[in-house]
Automatic annotation (TrEMBL):
Residues 7-219 form the Streptomycin biosynthesis protein StrF domain. Coiled coil: none annotated. This is Streptomycin biosynthesis protein StrF. InterPro entries: Nucleotide-diphossugar_trans, StrF_dom. It comes from the Bacteria.
């Protein structure tokens, strides 16, 4: 893999929204003398986010891959430098997210945990607000799962499209896949928010509960083992 390349991989069905998201990335600071190359991988016409992201892996040889929603705007100008710094601190860090939980609840819904960490600007309730979970005390803290708004990796692990054909719980699944492979999943310390997630009001349908059941069918033992340890 090319350790001088950072790929931004996005599943797109709204070109205007994607172009706005891409605009923010294009204005990030590239670390001086790093020889870092940024590439954009736009995935269209896929039935699930897992299949789209697997296609992104096939299309890019970048060591560092940022899987992000088309409605995410990165406002931390030093984002690239900051994520590379975290990865360079520990080769066992496999994935970084903006918000997550240290203990996945037994129902699989990460944000219902009492030990959520991180921060993000988000509009899922219909208006934009800053979501502040517990502060990350060091440069980063290890978590069990992160939210799928943006998932930053330095190793390629296949997304479980064999299980998740929709748009829910793929993020908890991928967090646990990294854990299964012996890697850490972390949330960084953010003095101010790194990302805006302008998703709009979220209405959950039957596919949400279907995804939750699939998560528990596959990972119940992982979740329970993590709680014991």
């Amino acid at each position: 893999m090319n350790d001088k390349k950072v790929a931004f991989i996005t599943s797109v069905n709204d070109e205007e929204l994607y172009e706005e998201s891409k605009f923010y990335v294009e204005h990030l600071i590239i670390p001086e003398d790093s020889e870092i190359e940024v590439e954009f991988i736009k995935i269209k016409d896929f039935n699930s986010i897992t299949s789209a992201y697997n296609e992104g892996i096939r299309r890019s040889d970048a060591k560092y891959k940022i899987f992000m929603h088309q409605d995410v705007f990165i406002v931390n100008k030093n984002f690239i430098q900051d994520i590379l710094h975290i990865f360079n601190l520990d080769k066992n860090i496999g994935m970084i997210g903006m918000v997550g939980c240290k203990t996945i609840p037994v129902n699989g819904v990460w944000w219902e945990a009492s030990d959520c960490l991180g921060k993000v600007a988000d509009s899922h309730i219909g208006s934009m607000e800053i979501i502040n979970f517990h502060e990350v005390k060091d440069i980063y803290e290890e978590v069990e799962a992160i939210d799928g708004l943006i998932m930053i990796t330095q190793y390629d692990i296949p997304w479980r499209e064999d299980i998740f054909q929709g748009w829910h719980f793929y993020d908890v699944s991928h967090s646990l896949e990294f854990k299964r492979n012996g890697y850490k999943v972390v949330v960084p310390n953010q003095q101010s928010i790194w990302c805006i997630h302008d998703c709009g009001r979220i209405e959950l349908d039957f596919s949400y509960e279907d995804g939750r059941k699939k998560l528990l069918d596959e990972y119940a033992e992982d979740i329970n083992t993590l709680k014991v340890t």
